[in-house]
């Protein structure tokens, strides 16, 4: 495949053609304006990762709550209770939490009740509870577990609103409109968190490939939709301007979420504003019926499967390995077979997704494979 075909296959044809002119005629001013461009070196300096097996401090496997038709955002009547569902966000729950939380809030508003029970305390539950509070509702969160013992704590934490959000062949045509509404709402809301204890940050992201990537390379994020113009596009960087030994290098800016501080911040705010929290596992619909509130918002992620007998929802497992934080490294990188993201609490290596797997045991050999791939990449990199 030629470079132009590759860009077209990657959905970048228009963007790349539009930016190609810019890159070739404006290389000097554009790059000199970039703080990391080093005149004496003649290329953009990028700090290297410290990679060794003794720097691994944590390995986890999280289960993405995936529904082929997309997240369930729906109001249903169950006896005397109104249930508002907001679960099943696949690999995009961090990114979409505010947007689907807003859709769930709109459904709650149709009920005219003021006291709300909210099930679940992951990123989706916390965002939805916050939005309900902002609209004057008295919210009690009922949850089996709190952060850090929730799936949301096992995520990479990057802006990826279309990652495994549905199977396009199984979602309704209307779903894309719902997704776009949620994505735009979330994007706006996340910009308001910039500068607040670094819970949300913009960072550089590189895609580094020696040969044309296939669909199974990289992080396999499986982004199924795209909104042109919402977040910055990829820009190709020419060989002489970057330190990697690779021909296909692209760069863009992307948002990351510093997961532990983010969840802590929003949960503390919820409590400060008078929100209530009860540790309670819900196993049956009868237990929901026994709650004092008439309106129940369900943000239990994969936990909704057994309680609401949802046959569609399934796990897509994903392993992450965390290395000791390196404050000087603040970018994200994707390459053939591995990616990493740098957060305040560590350097997170990842790269997989196994459909239907409930196995949460990390595989050391997978972590070591990612480390080896990245060692190879870093050793060839100009310092
Ligand atoms: C490896 C990996 C990487 C990811 N990377 C990203 C990313 O970069 N960007 C992104 O946007 N998304 C990402 N995701 C997806 C994201 O993590 C999920 O979509 C999101 O965490 C789902 O949030 P949630 O609040 O619905 O679920 P959870 O975090 O699972 O929260 C569910 C809550 O419900 C409670 N609960 C469950 N069952 C019961 C019960 N029976 N009774 C009472 N309470 C119950 C739980 O205790 C918990 O509090 C990733 C996921 C994985 C696994």
What labels describe this entry?
10 helices; D-Amino Acid Oxidase, Chain A, domain 2; 2 domains; FAD/NAD(P)-binding domain; nine-stranded mixed sheet; six-stranded mixed sheet; alpha/beta; binds flavin-adenine dinucleotide; 29% helix
Biggest β-sheet description: 9 strands, mixed
Give the overall silhouette: elongated
Distance between the termini: 31 Å
CATH C-level class of the largest domain: Alpha Beta
Structural class: alpha/beta
- The helix/strand series, from N terminus to C terminus, equals HHHEEEEEHEHEHEEEHEHEHEEEEEH
User: Which strand-content bin applies to the residues?
Assistant: 25-35%
List the total number of helices: 10
Shape-level CATH architecture of the largest domain: 2-Layer Sandwich
Query: How many domains, in number, for the residues?
Result: 2
Small-molecule binders here are: flavin-adenine dinucleotide
Can you tell me the residue ranges where pLDDT is under 50 for at least 5 consecutive residues? Answer: 1-33
């Amino acid at each position: 495949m030629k470079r132009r075909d590759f860009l077209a296959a990657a959905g970048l044809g228009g963007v790349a053609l539009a930016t190609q002119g810019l890159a070739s005629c404006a290389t000097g001013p554009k790059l000199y304006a970039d703080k990391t461009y080093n005149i004496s070196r003649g290329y953009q300096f990028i700090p290297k990762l410290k990679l060794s097996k003794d720097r691994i401090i944590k390995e986890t496997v999280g289960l993405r709550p995936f529904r082929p038709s997309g997240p369930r955002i729906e109001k249903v009547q169950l006896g005397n209770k109104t249930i508002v569902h907001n679960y099943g966000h696949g690999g995009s729950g961090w990114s979409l939490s505010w947007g689907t939380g807003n859709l769930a809030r709109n459904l709650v508003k149709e009920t005219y009740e003021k006291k709300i029970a909210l099930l679940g305390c992951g990123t989706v539950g916390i965002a939805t509870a916050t939005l309900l509070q902002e609209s004057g509702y008295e919210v009690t969160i009922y949850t089996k577990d709190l952060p850090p013992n929730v799936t949301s704590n096992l995520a990479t934490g990057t802006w990826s609103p279309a990652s495994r959000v549905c199977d396009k062949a199984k979602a309704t045509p209307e779903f894309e409109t719902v997704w776009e509404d949620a994505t735009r709402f979330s994007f706006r809301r996340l910009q308001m968190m910039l500068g607040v204890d670094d819970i949300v940050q913009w960072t550089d992201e590189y895609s580094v490939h020696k040969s044309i990537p296939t669909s199974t390379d990289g992080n396999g994020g499986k982004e199924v939709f795209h909104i042109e113009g919402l977040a910055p596009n990829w820009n190709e960087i020419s060989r002489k301007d970057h330190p990697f030994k690779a021909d296909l290098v692209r760069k863009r800016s992307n948002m990351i979420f510093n997961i532990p501080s983010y969840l802590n911040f929003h949960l503390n705010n919820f409590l400060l504003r008078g929100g209530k929290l009860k540790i309670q596992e819900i196993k049956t619909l009868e237990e929901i019926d026994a709650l004092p509130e008439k309106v129940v918002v369900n943000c239990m992620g994969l936990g909704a499967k057994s309680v609401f007998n949802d046959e569609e929802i399934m796990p897509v497992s994903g392993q992450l390995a965390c290395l000791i934080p390196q404050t000087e490294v603040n970018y994200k990188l994707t390459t053939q077979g591995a990616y990493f993201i740098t957060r305040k609490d560590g350097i997170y290596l990842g790269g997989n997704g196994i459909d239907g797997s409930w196995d949460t045991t990390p595989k050391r050999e997978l972590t070591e494979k990612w480390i080896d791939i990245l060692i190879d990449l870093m050793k060839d990199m100009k310092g």
